[in-house]
Amino acid sequence: MYDKILYNYALRLFQLEKKKAPKEFELTDALRFADLLSKSNHPMRSDAHKMWAQEIVILLNQLYGDDALVKLYAGSVFSSTGNHQGLKQSNADYTELTTFERIFAQYRNDYLTIPADTEKHFFSAQKEAYDHLNDPCFSYSGPTSMGKSFIIRMFIKDEIVLQGAKKNYALIVPTKALINEVRSSIINDLGANLEQHDYHVVSAVSDVALEENHHFIFVLTPERLLYLLISKPDIEIDYLFLDEAHKLSGKNSRGPFYYKVVDMLLKRPHRPHFIFASPNIPNPQVYLRLMNDIIETGDENKLASTYSPVIQVKFLMDFVGGKIDVYNDKANKQIRIADVKKSGMKLNDMLLLFEANNLRMPPEKRTQTIVYYNGRARAIAAAKAYTDYAGIKEKNDPELEALSKDISQEVHGDYYLADMIKKGVAYHIGYLPASIRTRIEKLFQSGHITIMFCTSTLLEGVNLPADNLFITDNKIFRRQMSPVDFRNLIGRVGRISYNLYGNVYFVSEEKSVTPETYVEMLQTPVPAQELSIVTNPNVLKKVEKQYVVLLFLNAPMMKAKSFSLKSHMS
User: Fold this and answer.
1) Helix, strand, or coil (residue 223)
2) Which of 180, 185, 389, 404 is the most exposed place for a label (fewest CB within 10 A)?
3) HSE (CB half, 13 Å, CA atoms) of 431?
4) CATH assignment, 311-523
């Protein structure tokens, strides 16, 4: 039955219903099955069952959007899973059928209400993590769509607005690109409360010199926070939130700075609360090894959730073999949708079909697409090749025209990006000026840009409302994509802030990346993580040297109120 639902959804998506007959199944049976799954209390499989229930009703809602019975069961499923956003989008008027169900739903509704924003609700896993953020240390993980940073922001808002806290909070984010997004979100969350409660959001160490009499919310990369701790040793940090804490595992240039920041704060007489947030890893407690007095095996200091409020439907596009399959990850099987060998179809042809469909839709129903490439040159070349097609016309959009003009003036080497923007197409890569990247992101979020070509910056990038994600390689530059990176990348489509589901297309245009490669990656679970300081004891050497040099060079300046390390953070 589930195979048939996937197959019929794929026919609808690719507009093949006139060429191929949808498969018959009993709709009522499918809805009842989903309803049963949504009420699962299995000790190990409850999250998986609830996500499957959501997937079934989401797909059925796409196939039978006007069916009252589908709406009724969708309401029941999302109510049972505690997915308030899903309930709001699928059946906002749903009311539980029995008195007991209504009483329980009201109790859960009250329990999951966000204290600092009573119009919104947590998911159960979010609430569980939120309730631990006052612990001396806590480590939690979940799917990309769990909203890990949202939990942190709501906690800070509660502390400041409702509790009247006078503390300093530090959020470590992995990239400079994320600083602006997180900073803007915090400012939007708190609004006038920042000034009323005497708080400043700081994203550069040099800002602190002018604002020493305030309380702070620091949003910094680990390097910037390290420089802050060196240059401003008297500033207390009451909470340290390490977003993307999996950077403490594996090989990456920022890992050592995370370690040094934690090490310095652990040695302070006034220890902050340490909160680690990671995507998808099964053993978040591993990061508690950094706390010398914490027993890693204890369950009270960690949470590993697998529940996601959104779904991803996965497709295998083999343009070498000339076939398109939808992937059933419950049975680990491929279901043939179309043979395209004779037509010679390639990725750009598929993208053009999506754009042609957009042109027939009203603005609110148009879909947005991200295409991932493993390198800058390939992403730019693909964007240029797509834009050069005769069917891609300029949109005569004033906002796109304005950005195009500014790109022409600011980024002279990217004159073709200026032309692409006019057509609602962009590429998003690391070397673009931050101001240009931010404007591209905002125009994508608002629907003016409908297709964006990206590199691995997407893995640590902003929250974008993509309906479709095309993955063209299993590598990040020349490095094989890790299971954590792979799951994180897939999670970039289908974001609860924007939609309940997304489509992921695994593209094989060259023999080096086959459908079998992608299937193997889909079937490979994220392994237990290790601290890179354990697997590579020399990991701290580089940052230790920089740390010692900075202390030596800047010691005479530490007492100067105007001291700034801005030059180190460009």
Assistant:
1) helix
2) 389
3) 10
4) 3.40.50.300
